[in-house]
Amino acid sequence: MTDASKNNETKPLAHIRNFAIIAHIDHGKSTLADRLIQTCGGLEEREMTEQVLDNMDIERERGITIKAQTVRLAYTAKDGIEYQLNLMDTPGHVDFAYEVSRSLASCEGSLLVVDATQGVEAQTLANVYQALDNDHEILPVINKIDLPAAEPERIAEQVEEVVGLPAVDALHVSGKSGIGINDLLEAIVTKLPAPHEGKGEEPLKALLVDSWYDPYLGVMILVRVIDGYLRKGQKVRFMNTKAVRELDRVGFFSPKPVMTGILGPGEMGFITAGIKDISETQVGDTITEEKNQCKEKLPGFKPSIPMVFCSLFPVDASDFETLRDSLGKLKLNDASLHYEPEQSQALGLGFRCGFLGLLHMEIIQERLEREFDLDLIPTAPSVVYKIHMTNGEVIELYNPVDMPEVQKIDKIEEPWIKATILTPDEYLGGLLKLCQERRGEQINLTYAGTRAMMEYKLPLNEVVFDFYDRLKSISRGYASFDYELMGYDANDLVKLEIRVNGDPVDALAMIVHRENAESRGRQLCERLKDLIPRQMFKIAIQAAIGGKIIAAEHLSALRKDVTAKCYGGDISRKRKLLEKQKKGKAKMRQYGNVDIPQSAFINALKMGDG
Amino acid sequence: MLEPLALYIHWPYCLSKCPYCDFNSHVAKTVDHPQWAQAYIHEINYYKNLLGARNITSIFFGGGTPSLMAPETTQSVLAHIDKAWGLSDACEITLEANPTSVEASKFQDFKRAGINRVSVGVQSLNAQDLKFLGREHSPEEALKAVEVAAQTFDRFSFDMIYARPKQTVDSWSQELCQALSYMGNHASLYQLTIEPNTPFFTRYNRGEFHIPDDKISADLYEVTEDIMRDAGFNSYELSNYARGEEASRHNMTYWRYGDYLGIGPGAHGRYYTNAGQKFATRAHRAPDIWLKQVLDTQKPALQDCFSLTEEEQFQEKVLMGLRLSEGMPSSLFEAKKVDALLNNGDLEMRDNATLCATRQGRLRLNSVIGYLLT
User: Does B241 lie in the same domain as B365?
Assistant: First the structure.
């Protein structure tokens, strides 16, 4: 086969549609995607597992998409032409907004999928705005219209009110039963634009959209070609990392990997280049041909910034190395995960980890426990503070333990977010109160029908602490929530320290607003008093700010523990008991004379707000 | 001077099992007494060959209910010990006895067999509590048996179990004072503990009864110490009280971590071999298996037999030694930990060299020793 004949396999721009799906969690995005794949013959009926694109168990179980996936569909439209549809399934959750922005940047259009029984949610809105920022054409799709509670007309109107997309353009479909799927495919071809630019004769210019490690194929790279061709055997240059590699596989997902040996302008697909280490591939990088390089790089993406931090410690100290390896493996496919080793007096050796958000944190923890069989102790989530020192220096504080002495601090700034909450109006009162309690400042409050949209300025610190759980419980699960970082602002923040017999417990240190310090300190002391078993020494549990004690509890000493008789035969049992005590001590932390079981700290950290 | 050696001989049979007891005790329809005597003698022969000449300082027949033994069995065993090692008049030979009239009637025979001390398990002077504890005697019967013991033997121990359900400081004080008038010069006063693998364990965990909490049982312990001290007893060990020099020499061997042999099913031993190793032994618990094996092999039927490391020996020595009011040399312990315990009032220093547990420390000796050794 000649190169020319291979070229013929690529589609002209006009016959290509690249689009993303934007939807709230469980609005049926993945089911709809599956249905599109099936209708276009990507998979036989028998090959369809539910939610084909969500590969990870955790994605299927939680019904969420974590990694962006792409699949190429062949659709013969009513005009008789076979179109190449490149579908990107994007994460719906705010924590993965970074993944979303990458997906959107490689497409020209989006389907906005809205549940006909539920309406527009806050996260969806955020992603729609991102799509608009990327000049996307957006096609509203009202899904689940076959449900008894479906109100497609009303929801379409809501989409028009909130998002500004005409209700008459909305398509009514059911991914589950297949209603309206053909109309949807036709609309994708007729209403979404083809790739705007792209010339085959120009030097190769392709966007590195994503990369992940596949145990059989090595590092897989997801690409979108702008100009020129990617060919098997070609020597390519990664312009940012300056690496030069030979392509050993070129193809697309159907969703099964299909090797074509070539990708042309406007097309999406994957390449492999014998890369073993994912850190060699930088998302947003520009790929060009080594011997015929393009002149300008693509603008690329802003790197992801961890917003939420917590430390993870293995329950069994001997699992530390396993934890290190496991984090390394997760990092292979999740560039946004940050971690570095940390030593805690209370909890031993572990890692300080940075996450995109709370869900990201939860998912990483769950994957570590499930896929790597680790028992973990997570510390309370925290954010990054900016500490302005009296000498003019500014320090970024990732861990409350590292807070400098109060005397040397001029002021402390904390990150603030703009939160958008959409809720049925009956829960508005409770949610306003919640935001007030969390030091929120109202920015805006509007209505769309019976749904209220609240916009609040909130300290991220207050949000990482079970805000989402409270929001869901107040609204019986109906309210949705999204946020974006606004910036940093100074506030009256203090480091709350918990001391046991005078020694600070590092794992329990936290930064809180001065107004909340006393109540939070008292709660922690009371809880620890219940959690620490009585021993032969009296135990003082204190909460302190700087040198000042703001709350205290005392645990009286255990008076009697001896079991009376001890003859010749009992000695072996006694000694075994002692050995057990010794082993148990490995899971204890010493504070002065007192040994405190690690479990007491773990349970104290599980503390909710109320 | 020959190295001292104590012998513990276990008789595993009882008429019925007490629901609190986790000792190696069994109920059997028939027992072949001569065979048992023969098995004990095989073990004695074996140990004589192993250890050579020793000074037998005490012998203790425990159980089970060794007062159910045929006195002839006791006699032939003691005669054989005499033949093997020699028995002096100074040797303390104790038999555990249940205070029923049947057993009391055998005391004379046991005395003739060589027993010179009995340890009488009165347990309680409250009829209801005796029933609860599963005992087969009434308070009156028990006190009568104690009188017989006092007439028959120069030395006897009066043994009780307290910290029973619903017991108060007042009711126990009264009961103990009543018991005092029947006591000789030794008493073992134990608190009831709920041990795994006993009927009480199951019933307790089902919530069928409660035992005094740590505060009440601590109060009960303290009032016991007061009453016994006022009656002229020295609390020479956590739960053992003696007037004058009447401490149990056999038990003192355990607590001072001297050498003792465990003879009979389930018995434990600790002894130095002539090669200087301290051995720990434990015999098979099941009486039938033990008996058959000993008769077949003419050797002890041991489930465990291993030498103890220096550290293990030290642990055992401390676990036992700190129970005694005579205490242990302070030089054995880490100074920092000792200071913490002295400051906390759990230990006291005698003559700048000896550490002993205070009353407060005795009450939570498990924690004290745990702190010292871990």
Answer: no
Q: Which two tokens stand for residue A59?
A: 């994605």
For residues B231 and B339, membership in a common domain is answered with no
pTM across the whole model: 0.62
Nearest Cβ partner for B268 among A557, A568, A578: A568
Best of A559, A570, A574, A594 to disrupt the B interface (most B CBs within 10 Å) is A559
Let me know: does A404 contact A391? Beta carbons within 8 Å: no
Q: Does the pLDDT value for residue B146 go beyond 70?
A: yes
Q: Is residue B263 part of a domain?
A: no
pLDDT in the model for residue A301: 73
- Identify the CA nearest to A18 among candidates A105, A95, A78: A105
The answer to whether the CB atoms of B266 and A569 lie below 8 A apart is: yes
Contact between B125 and B167 (Cβ < 8 Å): no
Tell me whether residues B267 and A561 touch, CB distance under 8 A.
no
Same domain, B205 and B322: no
In chain B, how many domains are there? 2
Domain boundary among B231, B254, B277: B254
Residues from chain B contacting residue A557 (CB–CB below 8 Å): 364
Q: Which two tokens stand for residue B14?
A: 């009882």
Count of A-B CB contacts under 8 Å: 103
Across the interface, do A567 and B191 touch by the CB < 8 Å criterion?
Answer: no
Set of chain B residues whose Cβ sits within 8 Å of the Cβ of A567: 62, 251, 254
Helices A320-333, A358-371: axis angle to 10 degrees equals: 120
Q: Which residue of A lies nearest to B238 if distances are taken between CA atoms?
A: A564
Q: Which residue has the higher pLDDT, A308 or A500?
A: A500
CA distance A344 to chain B (A): 22
Whether B343 is in a domain gets the answer: yes
Confidence at B87, pLDDT banded by 50, 70, 90: very high
Check CB contact under 8 Å for B344 and A536: yes
Q: Is the pLDDT of residue A8 over 50?
A: no
Mean pLDDT rounded to a whole number for chain A: 84
CATH for B19: 3.20.20.70
Q: Do residues B249 and B318 share a domain?
A: no
Look at residue A58 in the predicted model and tell me its pLDDT: 55
Residue finishing a domain among B254, B274, B298: B254
List the one residue out of B76, B46, B51, B49 whose CA is nearest residue B61.
B76
Q: Are residues B250 and B320 in the same domain?
A: no
DSSP B68-110: GS-HHHHHHHHHHHHHHT---TT-EEEEEE---HHHHTTHHHH
From the list B254, B282, B362, which residue is nearest A572 (CB)? B282
Give the mean pLDDT of A538-557: 92
Tell me whether residue B297 is in a domain. Answer: no
Find the domain containing B33 and state its range. 4-254
- Which residue has 């969690």 as its token pair? A25
pLDDT tens, residue by residue, B190-229: 999 998 889 999 999 999 999 998 899 999 999 999 999 9
Residues B79-90, mean pLDDT to the nearest whole number: 96
CB contact under 8 A, A563 and B366: yes
Q: What is the model's pLDDT at position A2?
A: 35
Structural domain contains residue B296: no
Please give, rounded to a whole number of angstroms, the shortest distance from the CA of A540 to a CA of chain B: 15
The answer to whether A565 faces chain B, any CB pair under 8 Å, is yes
Please report which confidence band the pLDDT of residue A52 belongs to, taking 50, 70 and 90 as the band edges: low
Q: What angle do CA A361, A363, A367 make, to 5 degrees?
A: 120
User: Greater confidence, A208 or A477?
Assistant: A208
Query: Residue A391: exposed, middle, or buried by beta-carbon count in 10 A (0-12, 13-18, 19+)?
Result: exposed
Residue A575 with chain B: CB contacts under 8 Å: 312, 315-316, 319
Q: The tokens 């259009």 sit on which residue?
A: A109
pLDDT at B196: 86
* Predicted ipTM of the assembly: 0.83
Least CB–CB distance from B374: residue in A536, A560, A585: A585
Model confidence over A102-154: pLDDT tens digits? 778 889 999 999 999 988 887 778 788 888 888 899 999 999 999 999 999 99
